[in-house]
Amino acid sequence: MADMEETEFEDILDDWFIESLKTYKDLYVYQLESPTQVIEWTSGTTVCVAGFSSYKNEILELRLPPKLFADENKGLCAERDFRVVHGGFTDGPVRCLRHVPGTRCVVTNDGLSSDLQVWDLGGDDGDMIRRTGSVEGGRSVSQRGSRIAARLSSQPQVLHGAQSDDVRLTQLTSGQPLLKLEMDSADPLSSLHFVSDAVVLAGCCNGNVYIADTRTSAAPQLSPPPASSDESVLWWTDASTGPSCSDLSSCRIVRLSSSGQSVISDLRNPGGAVSRAQLDVQSARRILDDVRVSWAPALRDCIAVSGFSGAVQIYNTSTWTPELQETRPLFEHRGHAVTSQSDDGAPLFATSHAWHPERPRTLLSAASDGSVHVWDWVDQPAADGPTVQFT
Average pLDDT in the 254-264 region? Predict the structure, then answer.
């Protein structure tokens, strides 16, 4: 029986490998010691990952395979592997991690309190990632911990909070709070975003979205989610901005529910629905801590969705209409589920994904077996197959 299962697995892997020759431009596979829920770009070629077990975890900065970025003469590039360039340890789990743009600093939250941990990623003179400080959170703590957004103004700043009534802007170097957003409700947060230098967005697990202008004392604008007959539905949010941080007219908001309904709104009218769709997602999991939805930064109208299963799906929202309709993904990365062979029979699911900030169709994704994939899909079958590298 075991031999039959092994043969069946190898057949599925072989079929998928042949299929990938037509659907991927590049595909690289790396295996972590333990799974991660965070993938954060620290440069155009490096990412930061960290474990989320209840004990000591590694926090690593990985350099992606140089061959991935060799647009010409890939065969002449000898380096094909992921490489650990900086590393360290954290005493607790890492449930949320954000890189502060323009610095060698990341900020994390353990999901157990609303406090933040500050880390120096190191430089050319050393390979150690060291904790350099902390930021005190509010009194509120949700089961999901604090959400974080980071920006580099005149000084590094972080927007953070566990609930909508306790969102605050803090100067990172001094730890001094600069602003607290005054909201009436205490909804657990699913995400925080800097839409521009002055405008911030808070997405709540119940689908509420708050938009605030930090230059004024006006109360944040509340946008409730679409009506739903399922009161237990959860929502995740992402915001897309235009080429300029001040171009708010091009900002769109996408909300994704645990039932698979996705709604896109304009920042100027967040309560309305520009378009909506019922996504082709299925999940038997009751806890959806790993669900992610994100706009592509360099590919217009596309979003990525992960966490419902072992797949990462790409959807083209340009064909959606204001009327709810079922839609199929433009592309689906099934590599984690296909290449995994769990000994304990536990279902595999994607734990995170991240778009490359400049390469339109390049994404990183991670799964519950500790695998990390970087992949670049193609719209049409390519004459030459992809580079597939297992590490």
Answer: 93
- What is the total residue count of the chain? 391
165 C-beta neighbours (distance < 10 Å), count:
17
Rounded to 5°, angle at Cα 28 from 103 and 292: 60
For the chain, domain boundaries? 1-31+253-391, 45-224
How far is the C-alpha of 297 from the C-alpha of 360, rounded, in Å? 7
Q: Tell me which amino acid residue 223 is.
A: S
CA distances for 176 relative to 96, 169, 242, angstroms: 21, 9, 30
Name residues whose C-beta falls within 8 Å of residue 213's C-beta, 6 or more positions apart in sequence: 198, 199
DSSP state of 287: -
Nearest Cα to 355, choosing from 194, 265, 210, 238?
Answer: 238
Decide: 366 and 353 in contact? Cβ < 8 Å. Answer: yes
Residue whose structure tokens are 């060799």: 70
Task: Please write the tens of the pLDDT for every residue from 83-95.
Answer: 999 999 999 999 9
Q: What is the pLDDT of residue 59?
A: 97
334 in Cβ contact with 13 (< 8 Å): no
Residue 94 near residue 52, CB atoms below 8 Å: yes
Residue 188: DSSP 8-state: B
Whole-number mean pLDDT of the chain?
Answer: 84
CATH for the stretch 45-224: 2.130.10.10
DSSP letter for 269, please: B
Pairing label, strands 387-390, 24-31: parallel
Quote helix, strand, coil % in the chain, to nearest 5. Answer: 10, 40, 50
Residue 334 neighbours by CB under 8 Å, 6+ apart: 16, 310, 311
Tens-digit pLDDT profile for residues 366-383: 999 999 999 999 875 433
Q: Helical H runs in the chain? A: 2-23, 335-339
Rounded mean pLDDT, 269-297? 84
Residue 67, phi then psi, degrees to nearest 5: -65, -25
